[in-house]
Write a structure and sequence with these properties.
The complex is a heterotrimer of chains A (385), B (387) and C (323). Chain A has 385 residues and is of the alpha/beta class. Chain A is 36% helix and 24% strand. Chain A is built from 17 helices and 17 strands. In chain A, a hairpin with a 2-residue loop joins strand 9 and strand 10. Chain B has 387 residues and is mainly alpha-helical. Chain B folds into two domains: 169 residues, no CATH class; 205 residues, MetI-like (MetI-like fold, Orthogonal Bundle). Chain B starts with a helix and ends in a 6-residue tail after the last helix. The N terminus of chain B is likely disordered. Chain C has two domains: 166 residues, Periplasmic binding protein-like II (D-Maltodextrin-Binding Protein, domain 2, 3-Layer(aba) Sandwich), CATH 3.40.190; 103 residues, 3-Layer(aba) Sandwich (D-Maltodextrin-Binding Protein, domain 2). Helices cover 47% and strands 15% of the residues of chain C. Chain C is built from 14 helices and ten strands. Classes of the chains: A alpha/beta (385), B mainly alpha (387), C alpha/beta (323). At the A-B interface, helix 2, strand 6, helix 4 and helix 7 of A face helix 12 and helix 13 of B.
Chain lengths: 385, 387, 323
Amino acid sequence: MIRLENVTKRYGETTAVQGLSLEVAAGEVCVLIGPSGCGKTTTLRMINRLIEPTSGRIVVNDHDVTEQSPEQLRRGLGYVIQSVGLFPHLTVADNIVTVPRLLGWDRARMEARGTGLLALVGLDPAEYAGKYPRQLSGGEAQRVGVARALAADPPVLLMDEPFGAVDPLTRERLQAEFARIQRELHKTVVFVTHDVDEAIRLADRIAVMRDGRLQQYDTPEEILDHPANKFVHDFMGADRALKRLGRVRVDSVMRADVPVMAEERSADAVAERAACSESRFVYLVDGDHRLEGWFDCRALVSGASAESAITTVDWREVSVHPDTSLKEALSRMLGLGFRSISVVDATGVLLGIVGLADIEETMTDSDAHISMAPVGLGAAGEAEA
Amino acid sequence: MTSPASESVVVPSRAHGIDRVAAFGAAVALAACLLLPLSVFRANRIVEGSPHTALSTGPAGWVLLGACLAALAVALLARPAARVRALPLAASALTIALAWALGRAAVTLRAGQPDISRVSIGGGAWLMAAGCAVVWFASRDYDGASTFRRAAAAVAVAGFAGAALAGGLANLSIVTEYSDRAARFWSAAGTHLALAGGSLLIAILIGVPLGVLSLRVRWLRTVTLGVVGLIQTVPSLALLGLLVFPLAALGLPGIGPLPGVIALTLYALLPIVRNTYVGLSEVDPAIVDAGRGMGMSGSQLLLRVEAPLALPLVIEGVRSAAVLVIGIAAVVAFVGVGTLGVLVFEGWGVQADDLILLGAVPMVVLAVAADSGLRALARAATSPGIR
Amino acid sequence: MRRYMKRTATAFAALAITVALVACSTTATPSATGTGTPKGPIRVGSKIDVEGPILGQIIIAMLEKNGFTVEDKTRTGATDVVRKALLSGQIDIYPEYTANGVLVFLKDQKIDPAVLKDATKTYDTVKQLDLQVNGIVWLQPAPANNTWAVAVPAAFSTANSIKTMADWAAYINKGGNVKIVGSQEFFTSAAAMPAFEKAYGFTLSKNQIVALGTGDTAVTEKAASQGTSGANAAMAYGTDGTIAALNLVVLSDPLAAQPVYQPAPTATKAIMAKYPEIATILDPVFKALTLETLQKLNGQVAIDGKDAKTVAADWLLAQGFLK
């Protein structure tokens, strides 16, 4: 969909981008990442010709970008920047339909589009359409920025550190929203960031750059498991193993066959069930299979009563959702002091269990053979800035 | 004990006990009424006059004193909530009382005197007007009842205009000066307006594009801002004198409306060019980047984004320029243009103060009207998103 | 367009139209024509003092009565401005003073200064030379001499028996207290105060002089009348209308130390060639403008506050020049 062929940009003596070649397939999210001055923003701005390359060729959708006028090209590419750049004198609705207005859409169509997009980015159209940018929070403003970029339904989105100017909590929410929207719309996205975690979370492929040169261009898993050189290795951070876990969903490793006990449960009945089971815990659910607690078999061994072996919980506080990353599941487990954690759906129905052992297995499965033994972690030394 | 009215009223913090500002204004008016002359009588235009205080000119003077006392009483004694309406009312009443007293005093003092005798507005009357204005402005600080305030203002203006039209002010010297040369007055006023307005328009047509271009072309910016800044420092008379040479070289008249318009246009340029440039340059670069990145061409960006954002500041520049050229239009009378300045110079030439006022007061009124009008325009032109 | 933009545009348009309408409706249009087929237009200028506009209006009224279309360009500017306007053809005619012609406009012509003492000689000289050198025609002058003079408060005059410049000179030389207010030009121009000093044998010291930047005699006379800054004498012009009203008297000039300033219409050669009847129309009128007449007319404008146009019309009617 987007192809850069040996693109170079020189400013007098300095070279911002050197011989960059990469290809972004349709519907993929390509994240450009690297330290400041590595040329990632310059590369992005060459795609929509805000900067013209010194040499090389850029092709979007099988057309050389120089075939049309820059204005024509840009109207077909969505553009989102860090400071959003909403037009303060226009309402949110008018801001969103900027490009449709340039393209000459009629008013009814623009209005419908605006309403739809506001809903898409998670803002109530009735409340937000008539607001002005100065009345919006940082997060809301950026959502509008994304909506504005999507207004004319471009196949490509160019995003330059779009979530960099908000607080971490809002940033996480915006990233989740973006992931959701991308799953729905399947745009081809070129995304610039310097935040490694963001890149790993959102990218289908990551392009690591340094001093204008491409260091590695691959899936996040590959980059984490097989960094091409010391720079990439250090740039991705010392906690590569944990980052790797961030790419794996809980529901891909959980054990669904979990010993459960529903309805009538006298302690003795539970004990009997437990005795026949191999796992330490028997999970107690209600009629709808919603998690209510568990029964610790080990407690029986020490001679305690059956009642004392039962722990009743609120599923909302001790579970994770199926699409939670292993990284977060591990974090929750450590926080709760558990060696395993239950996976529930939105209504609390028990879906499965994930334990430390499952996580370890995932890591051992990978080629990097990163084990939990102390010698593997921390030996990478200081990461380069 | 809050009355229903006070629930919708916000009283300024300085006015919770007595309203100090209003009290000051009313006190000034009262002192002026008692101590300074309301009117000055002279046997003819040029001799020295004899002052007369308000109370010595008859019952109207006592009414005026009453109005001053009433204003002071409102400022000192009225409940803060009641002051919202009482203050504008007091100011309005004081204005009408002042106009009436001036008119009556002129009639009284000229009774039995030759036709060429004059009664001028005394210093006390001016000071009373100033005090009244202070009371009025003090009343504007109270939130709420703005319709009442506007109504009170309308009544005052109507009262004043009614008195003038009914001939009640006819014996005042300034009105005599007017009636002696009414046609010439209106002609001068029209010329003044046309000259100032025309020059302003030309300055906008030249200045705004210059300001826009200055943004794009670096050397033009330095040259333009430098040149218009330099022009501003040249005193108007000198500029008019200097213009004679290039105009003569081009075979154009060095006196008359042409150098007048040229001079006024040149003076109006600086505020307009500078404000256009600043207004545009203050537009957040991120906005411009977003606009360009979305596919707006340079002119689309200018028209749809930069211009609306810069417009309030540009209109402010026009406002400055307007007030400036209305003032300088007086000076071009020196090169044979019949603006209100001619009346001022004539009055000065024969030491007739009221003829000077006849020229000067309308200029002030014009300037204030232009200022208010353009302020309102600036407000209307500002999107609710950037207020 | 956004709603508020539409509002702005309408408001601005309304404002602009209002201004234009008011300006156009009140700006003066050229004066109406007289009877018969219109001749002209003749553009009449004048200085911005008191007397100039009166003389200008007299010229305008007489020309209009005789069927000319006239453009009222009186109050054109100061002497040099209005003279330049005449020379460059922006106006056709304006009233000027004979001595001014000799002293200012023809000063390079090496004219014998003794000429200036005689009214006829001054006029003849300026008439001949200005036509020859600058192409300007001088018409019949008024017999009034509007020259520099010194005016003192009547009380002062009576108390010290000062009626002539000679009396005043004697008073000064005796050590009398004198403070005179005048323009800078009055005290420095060789033809003005220095001429008085030379003729009557006295000198004014620096602290006897208050020099102003302005040449307005109303200012100087008012100062002497009120005794501002201790002034008890003022620069004045012969035909000033303000003198009597301020209780001042003009000191006579028996030795004729001052040049003769007679007002006369000056016109371009071209306009006179085209309409030679202008001379026949204006000559008798100007002949009737004596010193007392001009003082009276000036007084009506300066003291009574009447408009120059009204004063000119009333006088012409009273004299029978207008019916």
